[in-house]
């Protein structure tokens, strides 16, 4: 193993090269190496300056996140930063790649900073449920002023080198290798007689109304604490001497380190990276994808085509009629229009995507050369089978055939072709060019390289891809159906849809289930209720009050009325009093006397239903690991990231208490609340869902 920090001398310059691949994370060896390196340079006769840079793809990308939650070991990162700044030698950092978190804090503790034009920097700790904890909240505002520092710290966004220079975060931008531009800069500084310069010695920044900034930040982050703590830390930079400000930053940092939110967000960070790694695909090469086809250019087909075009893939879109094909083009243009307006897409690029890269057709013969097809026609098995029969007829051998079905049996679709090994589900979420989640449905006969091709396509489109097995609704929609049913039961028993939505948005969900139903269209649930009615178990409790609203043509946002009433041009609605009347009438008809629900009970029941179904999904192998469920809910269903996902939440709550809840609810409704065998097993063995994640590697 090479040393974490390599020491080298060039003339009167000492060079500290970080070499801890892949991202030069600042683990214990790196911290020790930096302190030792500075001390060695100071003791090295004739050394006047020190250059710090990173080997490989980046400067330091931050503290080593894998150390969080363990006992911190000295030297601590803030002390390393202060040690660097206190050196009598001139210390220069040369940045490339991503200088993030503790990485940027090391740079801010250097006396001068230079970066290559492509370098990106920032303090992303809020995304880990933390604040910068190595003097960043104290040094950054001294350079940028308070408002900009708060914006950078609370958003955690990455800043390009040019902007960083304009904000005063770095001194110089230069093309070249970090070592070369760094050495040239150090030489310039030495030649011009530049002096050591310490950010901590700059005057404290001007204060603002911190209480107002704190409240505004807390509101914006929907219950996530870390951004608001960032405001308090910057306040300390204004109000306290530097060393005391650093101590206050450390106190806030350590407080956040002890929270469930920090655990949830770090779980999300690692799960996001683990979810696409499947041991069975190790060494399996995906098939090459150079051109794709999309069948059906409605809401989903147009979104999928947009996503593929943006990923640089030419798309042939097949519709039933030329008019429907033109309507699909309009939808795609609409999808790209926002980016065009915001200047994120040039007119030239827009034209190239919508005209050159996109081909519209009504003939299957135009599909004979494509490498992969995604079907997004109406959700009817008969229609899908006809489409797949046509694809089977025209597509070249080896072409991957995918369905975007939400619920239908992909095994049955595959069986309608002569090449079931080439068939899989690619379940996108609406709007498909925006939503990050992609469920990759591994059907009974899907070949490993076809599954690998699905993951490769997902990666190319910038999606979070999650493998799912075949069942009604796969991972996400199957679990959704269960917790939505739990909510419906609570409505029959006395809660209002509005109280439920409010309790869940307060919990951190982007939207409550009834606002979501209005957005998706109430006609979808209505059609499902009608479809399932003949086979329904008599013990199932299914409310019918919304059927009446649907019969009158009210389908939610798209018709202006549903659970909520939507004024033209407004996305948020106000409660629809008709719904309340319909609910009351149904309760009376069923002889139910409504009772009060606390917000806490609403959340416990809703989450218990979600966790219980999720445990069944994992137990049955529909999801490989608990973390797969967590990522589906985070990226497709607005689950608050700071809670990590439903199964991480369950672990943090304690599984025995959750199982007790489920058993107590089962005393009222034994049919609905059947405990998941996996949950019972974990409780019996004293294990957690995370133990299963770890066991899966
Ligand atoms: N600590 C430990 N491991 C890290 C890490 C870190 N800070 N950053 C990345 N890694 C690991 C990843 O888990 C991944 O491991 P794997 O190959 O086993 O899955 C590997 O490094 C490569 O990472 P990515 O796949 O994410 O590579 P990308 O090139 O896509 O992205 C990146 C690189 C932009 C640096 C991205 O990894 C990233 O955002 N990392 C986190 C940066 C961060 O949050 N830094 C702040 C840390 S907190 C802190 O510094 C506290 C301080 O203020 C006290
Ligand atoms: P849609 O009704 O908006 O679009 C369907 C399109 O398919 C229409 O433009 C129609 O003209 C076309 N079409 C129908 N039969 C065809 C055929 N035989 N050949 C060519 N084109 C044909 O429907 P939407 O919402 O886009 O759904 C499509 C599929 O995606 C369904 O399977 C649905 O379950 C699934 N899905 C829908 C989601 C949503 O939120 N709307 C989310 C995820 C999946």
From TrEMBL:
Domain of life: Bacteria
Source organism: Pseudooceanicola lipolyticus
Keyword Ligase: no
Pfam families: 3HCDH (PF00725), 3HCDH_N (PF02737), ECH_1 (PF00378)
Protein family according to the UniProt entry: In the N-terminal section; belongs to the enoyl-CoA hydratase/isomerase family.
Lineage, broadest ranks: Bacteria, Pseudomonadati, Pseudomonadota, Alphaproteobacteria, Rhodobacterales
3-hydroxyacyl-CoA dehydrogenase C-terminal domain boundaries: 473-566, 603-687
PROSITE patterns hit by this protein: ENOYL_COA_HYDRATASE
GO BP, sorted A to Z: fatty acid beta-oxidation
Residue stretches spanning the membrane: none
Domain (3-hydroxyacyl-CoA dehydrogenase NAD binding): residue spans on this chain: 292-468
GO molecular function, one term: isomerase activity
Pathway: Lipid metabolism; fatty acid beta-oxidation
Recorded catalytic activity of this chain's protein: a (3S)-3-hydroxyacyl-CoA + NAD(+) = a 3-oxoacyl-CoA + NADH + H(+)
This protein's name: 3-hydroxyacyl-CoA dehydrogenase
Entry keywords, A to Z: Fatty acid metabolism, Isomerase, Lipid degradation, Lipid metabolism, Lyase, Multifunctional enzyme, NAD, Oxidoreductase, Peroxisome
């Amino acid at each position: 193993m090479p040393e974490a920090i390599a020491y080298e001398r060039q003339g009167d310059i000492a060079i500290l090269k970080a070499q801890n691949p892949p991202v030069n994370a600042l683990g214990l060896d790196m911290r020790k190496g930096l302190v030792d390196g500075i001390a060695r340079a100071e003791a090295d006769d004739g050394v006047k300056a020190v250059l710090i840079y990173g080997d490989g793809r980046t400067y330091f990308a931050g503290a080593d996140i894998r150390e969080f939650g363990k006992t911190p070991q000295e030297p601590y990162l803030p002390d390393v930063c202060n040690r660097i700044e206190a050196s009598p030698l001139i210390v220069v950092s040369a940045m490339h790649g991503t200088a993030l978190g503790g990485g940027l804090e090391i740079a801010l503790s250097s006396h001068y900073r230079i970066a290559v034009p492509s370098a990106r920097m920032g303090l992303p700790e809020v995304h880990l449920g933390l604040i910068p904890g190595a003097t960043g909240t104290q040094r950054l505002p001294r350079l940028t002023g308070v408002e900009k520092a708060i914006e950078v710290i609370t958003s955690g966004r990455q800043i390009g080198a040019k902007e960083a220079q304009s904000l005063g975060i770095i001194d110089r931008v230069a093309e070249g290798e970090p070592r070369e531009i760094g050495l040239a800069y150090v030489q310039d500084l030495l030649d011009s007689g530049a002096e050591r310069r310490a950010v901590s010695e700059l005057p404290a920044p001007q204060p603002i109304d911190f209480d107002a900034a704190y409240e505004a930040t807390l509101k914006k982050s929907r219950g996530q604490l870390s951004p608001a703590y960032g405001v308090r830390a910057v306040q300390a930079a204004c109000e306290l001497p530097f060393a005391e400000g650093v101590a206050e930053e450390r106190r806030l940092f350590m407080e956040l380190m002890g929270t469930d939110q920090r655990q949830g967000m770090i779980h999300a960070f690692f799960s996001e990276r683990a979810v696409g790694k499947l041991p069975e695909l190790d060494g399996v090469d995906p098939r090459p994808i150079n051109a794709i086809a999309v069948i059906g250019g409605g809401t989903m087909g147009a979104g999928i085509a947009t996503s593929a075009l943006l990923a640089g893939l030419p798309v042939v879109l097949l519709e039933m009629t030329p008019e429907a094909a033109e309507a699909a083009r309009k939808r795609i243009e609409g999808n790209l229009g926002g980016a065009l307006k915001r200047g994120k897409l040039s007119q030239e690029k827009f034209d190239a995507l919508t005209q050159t890269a996109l081909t519209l057709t009504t003939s299957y013969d135009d599909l004979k050369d494509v490498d992969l097809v995604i079907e997004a026609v109406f959700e009817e098995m008969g229609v899908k089978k006809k489409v797949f029969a046509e694809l089977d007829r025209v597509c070249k051998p080896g072409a991957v055939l995918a369905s975007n079905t939400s619920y239908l049996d992909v095994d049955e679709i595959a069986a309608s072709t002569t090449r079931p090994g080439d068939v899989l589900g690619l379940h996108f979420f609406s709007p498909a060019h925006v939503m990050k989640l992609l469920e990759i449905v591994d059907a009974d006969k899907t070949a490993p390289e076809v599954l690998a091709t699905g993951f490769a396509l997902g990666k190319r489109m910038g999606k979070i891809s999650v493998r799912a097995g075949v069942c009604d609704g796969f991972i996400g929609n199957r679990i959704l159906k269960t917790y939505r049913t739990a909510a419906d039961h609570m409505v029959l028993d006395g809660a209002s849809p509005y109280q439920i939505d409010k309790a869940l948005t307060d919990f951190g969900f982007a939207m409550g289930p009834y606002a979501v139903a209005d957005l998706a269209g109430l006609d979808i649930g209505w059609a499902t209720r009608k479809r399932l009615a003949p086979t329904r178990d008599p013990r199932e409790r299914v409310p019918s009050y919304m059927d009446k609203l649907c019969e009158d043509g009210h389908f939610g946002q798209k018709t202006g009325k549903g659970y909520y009433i939507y004024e033209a041009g407004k996305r948020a609605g106000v409660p629809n009093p008709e719904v309340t009347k319909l609910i009351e009438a149904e309760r009376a008809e069923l002889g139910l006397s409504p009772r009060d629900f606390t917000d806490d009970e609403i959340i416990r029941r809703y989450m218990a239903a979600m966790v219980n179904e999720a445990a069944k999904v994992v137990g049955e192998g529909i999801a490989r690991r608990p973390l797969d469920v967590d990522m589906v809910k985070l990226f497709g269903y607005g689950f608050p990231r700071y809670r990590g996902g439903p199964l991480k939440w369950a672990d943090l709550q304690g599984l025995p208490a959750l199982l007790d809840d489920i058993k107590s609810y089962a005393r009222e409704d034994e049919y609905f609340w059947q405990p998941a065998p996996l949950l019972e097993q974990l409780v019996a063995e004293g294990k957690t869902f995370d133990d299963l994640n770890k066991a899966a590697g």
